[in-house]
């Protein structure tokens, strides 16, 4: 018996373009029983080979996606057989890397191999939508001689970074102005920053930039409220903060509801016909009864498990704030005068509901923050008997 265990060194969340590092350990546990072996070779356990690669599978509800394999990568059709047990189409498949050939382990002995692979920068992010799903895993395959291939799948999550941010970071890394300056032996040589670190800095600058925008919400009867959103770009895990100003209103607002929604728009082939589909999912809600208020605020958390905005040739994901205002023109809701000490609210009032959607930009954040907030198993094990 051999135990195969895999451990991710830096958590299970990565950015597109980042290097994945995983240690794979092969261990031959000692037998608890003292069994006399027939020969010296019986003491050892052996494996013929082991390899690893990263797969990204795409799942849709269309039948053609389950049957069409013409667009698969060359390296997807290997001995690992990642496509034989699942119906998803291989979207990304890296070149398999051989970990070893002909490994022999004595009882109590273990061998550890380090698998490193860069996630392609143009790969889609991990996403579990209603119409399209993208799933990533590290597939580790191994085999005994004349035995079937055994697979150990290590799921990972990939966040989108954006081609514009990566291009800007690469351009900054390629600048040579510092190298042309005269060398000073008394100055410490500064290490050149990696494109991924520069892209995270650019992402920090974009989402930290304050740019308040004011919106006057009106209907056919007049002004409802004045809404202020302090910035249009956010990262995963942040709070969306805004304010409502009812002092400018000419129409009473009874209550307001705000939802964080993602709009999934895809072009799926059904019976060889292109069918454009749109699905809307709601994640966070803020509800408040605001009758009689002059001011109130909006605090809407962004979950860490959602996927930032991205676009592929199959699906486009965008984010928005969806507002619902319940208004009324009933005159009996006007605030009473100071002399009126016996004011009673009406039992029924006529209301109207108006809706409004405001697009926002949602970006990724540091993968360490996501891994700490969304816990997942970083160790995976496979028993080969």
UniProtKB/TrEMBL annotation:
Q: Which Pfam families match?
A: Rgp1
Q: Which domain of life is it from?
A: Eukaryota
Under what name is this protein listed? RAB6A-GEF complex partner protein 2
Organism for this UniProt entry: Phaedon cochleariae (Mustard beetle)
